[in-house]
Amino acid sequence: TEDDVYCRCLSRTLCHTATPVTVGFYAPCGHRLESLLAKVTGASGIWGFFRDFWEFGNGGDVGLPHGWGLLVALWLLAFYEPVVTEGHLRRKNLEFIFIRFSAWEFAGCDKLWAGLVTTLCHHIRQHFGALPLSVFHVLGSRPRFASGFSQKEWILKKGTCLRLWGLLLVLGVGIAILLVALLVPGIKEHHALKVVGSAVASLSGSSLVLGALSILKNFLVSEKKKIERLTDSDRFAGQLGFMSKVRGEVDVLVDFLAFMEVFERRRLRVVLEITSLDLCYPEKVAGVFNAMATLLSDANAPFIFLLAVDPSVIVPCLEQTGCMKGLADNGYLYLNRAVTLPFSIPEMGARSRLRSVEAAIQTREDLLYRIIAGNVAKT
What we know:
It is a single chain. This protein is α/β, with parallel strands linked by helices. The protein has 15 helices and eight strands. Helix 5 (112-128) runs antiparallel to helix 9 (223-232).
């Protein structure tokens, strides 16, 4: 149908669009929105599959953080630093991570923009798992870009390895001294040796325990909970450093996604589908645009904002807020500046209407068949 053609064109365009980017998905009728977004998601999955097949033949070389791949990912997180090579930047295979954000669900809270950030953090944690993200918080490092024509994607973190082996060596020496002071005859009376052995073992062991506790803390307390605590706290709400803390959590997510790109050997695109924005109050709408600007400020962020709205509804909301200063109260001008790639879906064509009617009739027939079959079974 016509809708399939438009949605497939958009999904293919997303494969070639540089990130971060804001796509204006302008649909005149809200009741078609769910089906249109489903078509975009399905078409993007098909393009991603074919690109994986083109890159690796059968997609078997793509690393995934599950099973044995999870152990490999944790090992690389702890002891290796990812390197973004020229070959990686030229990869054509993509994975789209679609995240649905319904602004109407968060319209009642004071900080609607915080709902957008927490939704992003929650779905990224669910998609890749809590353990890799928690380890990255403590041991992970920001990916670096390769110099020259080097194709080496992993560099050993010598400093981390030296510190770890040093702690283990000191711990072993402390335990050995303590055992000698406790078990060897003639030395048991030397209390000073026992004190030295126990102090060395406890200090080195405490460093390892603190690292493990930090990983456990990030495993139990998600990024979503951290941001929710910040927004609920009056102590941070009035400080300038509040947004920097939220920005720090987003930066960690961006670096983690860059690590997973190198590990999985494909490019990642996080598509945030923002819906129901035209049902919120004007000041809430402006807050979401401000949150989008915050997330888009990182040039390396793999974010695609799919702003599914009706411009005829959203523009009057923008013109009623104070964000229009300097734009002569022109809501369309503000929307054009906020949206990088406008994509308009026309009204439903004849073929699309016919397909919708056929689907509705078939659904009704299936429902009637189930009711009749259920009545027959009861009798």
